[in-house]
UniProtKB/TrEMBL annotation:
Domain GH84: 1-150
Protein name from the UniProt record: OGA GlcNAcase
Stored InterPro entries: GH, Glycosyl_Hydrolase_84, O-GlcNAcase_cat
GO BP term, example: glycoprotein metabolic process
PANTHER family assigned: O-GLCNACASE (PTHR13170), PROTEIN O-GLCNACASE-LIKE (PTHR13170:SF23)
Positions in coiled-coil regions: none
Species of provenance: Thinocorus orbignyianus
A molecular function (GO) term: beta-N-acetylglucosaminidase activity
Amino acid sequence: VFPSLAQAQASVANEVYQELGQPSVFLFCPTEYCSSLCSPSPSKSCYLLTLGKELLPGIGIIWTGPKVVSRELSATLLEEVEGVLQRRPVIWDNLYANDYDCRRVFLGPYTGRAPGLMPRLNGLLLNPNCELQANFIPIHTLGSWFQSELRSCGHPDCAGMETVTAPEDDQGTQEGSYSPQEALELALLDWVTEINRQALEPGR
């Protein structure tokens, strides 16, 4: 019935989206959901180009970055993806995911995400460690990163705004910008407080 996988997927997604009354949040995860899965590249992928053209504009598209688990996210890459998909992507961030390797637990701060990404995003989902307690620092520092992004934009909704940031100097991060180390220290202080609070609960 359909000449390509992308057209088939877009047709089904559009029909479901319309049947549900075009909800404000409706996410579509493409088969090519990161750069390493694209052939030959995101900007030249016939699959992604078709999705960008065929999917209704109210449908959000999930993207994980250069790889399934991306160590870094840059505004340049997201700008390329936005051009292909004809909408800003929703990042499904697998930085902390360990469902594929139970020996891997990431307890470090949210890092590797360039400042000024928010104008290039339509949302961000964090895929956490499977172990619940291991996610205190990831989620806490994600909150710090998000607050820093809001401050740099000057408004909670900075869609479409361009953000200019100075490069880091030899002294560390630019004043007022997100610092993974500072975010980690704040998270650790709050985590210790939470652990002590739980330890005092009856039966613990």
